[in-house]
Amino acid sequence: MAEKDRNQIPTADFTSDEAYLSGFANSFSSEAIAGALPGGQNSPLLCPYGLYAEQISGTSFTSPRKLNQRTWFYRIKPSVTHEPFKPRVPADCKLLSEFNQSKSSATPTQLRWKPVDVPDSPTDFVDGLFTICGAGSSYLRHGFAIHMYAANKSMEDCAFCNADGDFLVVPQKGRLWITTECGRLQVSPGEVVVLPQGFRFSVDLPDGPSRGYVAEIFGTHFQLPDLGPIGANGLAAPRDFLVPGAWFEEGHCPEYTIIQKFGGELFTAKQDFSPFNVVAWHGNYVPYKYDLSKFCPYNTVLFDHSDPSINTVLTAPTEKPGVALLDFVIFPPRWLVAEHTFRPPYYHRNCMSEFMGLIHGGYEAKADGFLPGGASLHICMTPHGPDTKTYEATIAQGNEAGPHKLTDTMAFMFESCLIPRVCPWALDSPAIDPDYYKCWIGLKSHFSPEGTKDPIEARENGPKDSR
Ligand SMILES: [Fe+2]
């Protein structure tokens, strides 16, 4: 409970990790005042302490039990208590949730962006959010959008509500202090947070200039991937997902604004209280965070390079088995031990589309040019793979490469079965790298019909022919 002084940012940890509830897809309950949670029923005639009961449904009422997600809030005033929504002014907004020919472009070209500059002018999380690409439609409840944000100030007297889909936020620079209706989360670079459709939240930026990536999915929610032959353990463990405990603030907040993203457009509504007035809640539709350093990677231990799906943290499925609307895959620090193997990622064309970002360090397939805070997009069936420098350095090393640990790296990929269209402001961005294609142009032919069938053996045994 807090009487919030909106001009004061706390200096202590926003919420220590010990304060969270833990588990993935659990049914949680939490109360900031003992006894605030009604027992035995969800909607009593009179709730404890005079609270209002309100349900948020993240799936249809009739979704199968294993997929059904909803949470009950017990709050000081219900969220309906606000003035009418109006289009936000100014309307200049670089957000999209419908990807068609009118507002976005198709291109098979490999795209890469340098890190986006954090603006000098005061910019909060909402103003600093812009769409890069996406597919489908939030109205049709099928599709996704990929956004980035670059901001430098906390949201003040306003909360954001995304009616279109779930946000998976990947901070790259600067911590996020996120207040939600379920409670508060501190999310540092190296952690990710999921903010489900419809939740109201506010983002403080305790470190000032901040930057990151956001994947938004329409019409479904993230799950943990099946583990198949890996067994019962490995990859992301359910207990490492953290959910905030109940926290509320009360008091008169004149001119408080709810900013609602609806169909990719922003609307605002005024109310005179904070939406973070939930004293107790229970349910399984919740915001949660995950520390990527807790991911337990699996990989080849003898030869060849595993497909990147081996490092899936979360997946948003489609109705087709094994086909994701959006996979969130990471490339964490790990040992490389494969023998007689080209260890970097293989050259590749994919029916899926791949958006990549880099949180810190370097990426094993790109010696130059792919920087923390930058991004790349390799769309359906567009070729991609290691740059010339990486290829030449790898084969020069030959078969002598012993076990090697990749350190100081955390790259990630959003991969989708849908083919994204790209926003004009992303294509025209000063951050786009017009020379990206040149990183492969230098790849030369090593083909020699008269050469040996086993070049590694030939190299290790020295030159045999005297041509
Ligand atoms: Fe690929």
Question: What does this 3D model show about the protein?
Answer:
- The chain is mainly beta and 467 residues long.
- Helix content is 5%, strand content 34%.
- The protein has 2 domains: 81-277 and 285-292, Jelly Rolls, CATH 2.60.120; 295-431, Jelly Rolls (Sandwich), CATH 2.60.120.10.
- It is globular, with a radius of gyration of 24 Å.
- The model is unreliable at 1-11 (pLDDT under 50).
- The chain binds fe (ii) ion.
- Fe (ii) ion is lined by residues 348, 350, 354, 384.
- Fe (ii) ion binds at residues 348, 350, 354, 384.
- It is an enzyme of class 1 (oxidoreductase).
- One of its GO terms (cellular component) is cytoplasm.
Please give a handful of descriptors for the protein shown.
467 residues; mainly beta; Jelly Rolls; 2 domains; 4 helices; globular; disordered N terminus; binds fe (ii) ion; Homogentis_dOase; EC 1.13.11.5
